[in-house]
């Protein structure tokens, strides 16, 4: 295995060693070399080009001590201590229960707890007329992503150490800090909110067809004959002709499914070695807290948005921009900040759009057209309903992607020269790891849209980390061995990393200067650089997505006569 350089007496799992031992490798092609447990017996003998970087939270401990505020550093020290011993427990658990089936199950189901999944799922809820429920889900998800990202960048706690843990991952979540678990936060808050909706349906009475008219007519008759001494007219017994929206069997089945969903996501973070027990426990608590706040104050917030006039945008827009600006700056280059920007911006766009629609006549009364067809009617009715829903979903998603392409290109063109002009007038805020506009002329084309992976790409996106070295699990299953040609991220040698030690002796200012020098090294093309224009671009792009998904596209469907209300 390839390990970071450590002293002879150092604990191999100690994140406080003087040089980084946390590596992440993306292999370009199969090669020969080391044999992994999950690999099949094959050896093709070709070479491997690999890129390695220091994992979030695994820089030398003195870096965090010097850069973080004392109280942040103190919290981090406690968390690192728990990660150290919990890593041993998780490794022992993995040794007992890991199988190929469970590996695949927990890795792939982890995508159901990501904000990417909910970003695709939530617009459909808006498109099909459940705007109140969709808005509640959106607020919960945004709060979970922002709050967990805020805490992650605040304390900079690493994920469980590999070794002893074997880490299974998909996507770039392993590049983030570990505490708390965003997956656990999202899955618990969403599942609890969906259960709240189920409970409302289960206890909501539904009158039989024509019963509401019967009660109305009967009430009028009683009122018109109130002089009658006989009192012969009486309202019918409601309990005899009503039923609940959801049967008991359906309620318990769906509740069990939500419980299993929560277990799969939360326990899956432990099984895959992505989080410690502490990470998941705090994530569960945070998700429960967010759900409770939404249940208690969600309706009051909706009422405030619909009835408070210009006070709504005057408060919502500055608050959301302040949340973006005040997000903690981490020591490592962690992608948490970009996730937080996206969801705060979506909330800003959706709330402002909702406020505008109510003030200009696009309220609930505007959406009066029912979705054509009926799933319980003839086959033609069912086909009409399914076709309508499918077309709306496809068209709505395409509109959102088209907006994303257009807006991203537009603001990457407009913002950099705007920033350079403003920089001559006053000092612009600058965030670590984000290159200011004065240092570049244009945003490279590769900073545009990334290709969207298809289902057949998923196996190649799965990675396995041992000794905190990641490679494609699919390739390991196909090739038994690898040759590693390791290069530290940003082209830095181990000798350059020793810069931390010499800088730490001269205090925080020299340590910060050393960090800046460390960051200025030339980076390989495969490492994504950040530009200051990306921040505001993401704000505009995702604000527009919130406006389109929550208001613009449903209005278009209503005008076209396709309807958004399910009858």
UniProtKB/TrEMBL annotation:
Q: What is an example of a GO molecular function annotated in this UniProt entry? A: sphingosine-1-phosphate phosphatase activity
- Pfam families registered for this protein in UniProt: PAP2
Alphabetical GO CC annotations of the entry are:
endoplasmic reticulum membrane
Topology class, membrane = Multi-pass membrane protein
Q: Which InterPro entries match?
A: PAP2/HPO (IPR000326), PAP2/HPO_sf (IPR036938)
Superkingdom, taxonomy of origin = Eukaryota
Species whose genome carries this gene:
Obba rivulosa
**Where does this one sit in the cell?**
Endoplasmic reticulum membrane
Q: Which UniProt keywords apply?
A: Endoplasmic reticulum, Hydrolase, Membrane, Transmembrane, Transmembrane helix
Q: What transmembrane ranges does the database entry give?
A: 105-128, 251-270, 276-297, 309-328, 340-358, 393-415, 539-564
This chain belongs to the protein called: Phosphatidic acid phosphatase type 2/haloperoxidase domain-containing protein
- What are the Phosphatidic acid phosphatase type 2/haloperoxidase domain coordinates in residue numbering? 136-293
- Family membership: Belongs to the type 2 lipid phosphate phosphatase family.
Taxonomic lineage: Eukaryota, Fungi, Dikarya, Basidiomycota, Agaricomycotina
Positions of region (Disordered): 1-26
